[in-house]
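Practice problem: Lysine-specific histone demethylase 1-like protein 1
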Amino acid sequence: MEEASDAQPPPPPHAEAAEQPPPVPMDQDEDGEAAAEPMEDGEAAAVADASEAADPMEDGEAAGDSAAAAEPMEDDPPTSSPTPSAPSATAAVDDSTVARKRRRRKKQFPGMIPTAGVRVLRGSSSSSSAHTAAHLTGVPRRRGRPPTSSSLRLARELDSEALIALAAGFPADSLSEDEIAAAVLPRIGGADQANYLVVRNHIVALWRSNPLSPVAANAALASIRAEHTPLVAAAHSFLSEHAYINFGLAPAVLSLPPRSPPSFPPPSVLIVGAGFAGLGAARHLIALGFKVAVIEGRLRPGGRVFTKTMRSSAAAYPDTVAAADLGGSVLTGINGNPLGVIARQLGFPLHKVRDKCPLYLPDGRPVDPDMDARVEAAFNQLLDKVCQLRQVIADGVPHGVDLSLGMALEAFRAAHGVAAEHEERMLLDWHLANLEYANAAPLADLSMAFWDQDDPYEMGGDHCFIPGGNSQFVRALADGIPIFYGQNVRRIQYGRDGVMVHTDKQSFRGDMVLCTVPLGVLKKGDIKFVPELPAQKKEAIQRLGFVKFEQASPMENVEKVLETLRKIFSPKGIEVPNPLQAICTRWGTDSFTYGSYSYVAIGASGDDYDILAESVHDRVFFAGEATNRRYPATMHGALLSGYREAANILRAARRRAKKVDSPEKMDINVEVKVDVNGEVKDNVTGSNIDLDDLFRSPDAAFGGFSALHDPSTSEPDSISLLRVGIGARKLGSGSLFLYGLIMRKNIAVLAAIEGDEQRLSTMYRDFGTKLVGLDSLGDAGESLISRIKAAARN
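Answer key — structure tokens:
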């Protein structure tokens, strides 16, 4: 996020990378309401008075000492009658607990396996940066003389803008995968790419400096030489279409006219689900000129983002009100976070999660600080040992092996005698439980190899929340969007002529469909796809994890919390009363979620997020936190996935429009057939040369890798088509081929490396190449394949 409070003035240009001003602390909240940290299934929290917010919960409501009532999941008034009791601040969960949970949720360890797209901002000399600045802005330079002060100042601005772009999710010194797919440049590398990156970073910095006003292309030209106008146009178009700039809910942004649609009449998109992913995609698609309809099963928008307004029904406290976020609540990192931009546009104050987090023993005694520090250090050392083990496995085992994170941690704990004393073990168990809380899964279910695969992308800055809850975001994003509520989707059909979405009430027809339902719903199979989804997507759905929920009654949890609180505060002379109202989450039994959020289970990896995100025949698209490899299990991850798929849908619509204009160029036909058993199947047939045949005689082959070069050029910076076989170790049967675009010179680098695991690590870490399905290579991939096939025909 860009600033800590709506009282702060907009920062000056290029200031985003600097230290942010501290947000308003909790006790300075003027409204008296606050949202708190999301809870897992079965957790409970109590609300005390109007100045406190309960820890988020869902589905089973408990009041006082009475039995719990089921929470209706919609914004209905509570049905139970809470026991009258004096309100007390101690009955609500202190946000300092949230701080400790989130502060220790993610750690990046020296031994972690590199993952895709990780980039390090390379240090450059001031003279080198100054030279680039001079070239783009027209500042004269004389050979052999030191840079002038104005050149040095421009160089510093370039570095600052690169950091801002890095925070927004771009590589600091190369094109992103999406930029390559969108073919923002006719050729990768060279002076044009270097200049494009400077232009792109400059435009992103202009937008982030003041997201209340859209950035026009000519605004960037004020400090860029006229000869680079095509680069400005390319960068501005890409950033706008992919919602890196000019997105959100500022009045000036909302007043922008829609772009011309990719074809006439405008293509129609059906969006299943009105959560952050669906709402973000809907808004952006409308801005891109599409016709949109959102189909939602609940009677409200927001999905797993839901703020419950809790009101006391006790006669003694009729005005006691608080807001509790029952699902996603904390904005995990404000630097570069699109929700931070929207919060600033809407004037929402951001409250920083405090770092102070004292721990107490079950009998109410505070934990000895020395013991706390010692056990925390030992816990981190155990994680270091696990990271070292997985690196050894990755280096030494040809096809890799995976086991549970919990098993590895316990093995090292026992081997090194960690936490042998009773109180030390209780403290260690707190850290282990906190790790489970952060991942929404038992440690026994987490992949040792990839449980923290998203750590390198974690957004920096403070963790914050919005007073009054995140439903404020939901209401603002849903405003004016055509949403059909109470429509439970049962079947999605797709083919050459479009898509059909069938609910329990009616059917909807469109050109394309975007499915944003949670992973738990896909796992459950409540929505039938006709034809069936590709095998690799179905297998990725099953490999990724999505939580076992707590079966304990809400009142049992509330009583445990109260028992501990009373042991802590009674010796201090502070009475802990019964709560006026309490709610316990039950996301796992919710038929619209079947769980809280995704995690990397044993046998899964970050690749499965990418596979789940792939479109099917440019008709069926997928978004949601479980499709975002970089930011899974977060609200901003869901929102960004919606923006991503809106851009992908735009590219697909453009491709389809080109094929309509030139039908003889169509290479792919999708036919839907019914076999003798009544099963619907789809056949993909090639009307021209089959790509698999070409890969039987590739230009380069080593291990599970093979490559076809661009036949139109022999430049080392030209793009080649890479194919990687993912074998039985991941899928259990057969081989899955994934594809990527990579520079020709980097093919030789990969060929010189021993072992496919190391090749993959180098490809992800150093080259930023993402492996996807053949249908997801974008315009650049489609163009390259066309050239390869044309050369083969000739």
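Discussion: Residues 1-135, 137-145, 663-687, 728-734 have pLDDT under 50 and may be disordered. Students who identified this feature from the tokens alone can consider the problem solved.
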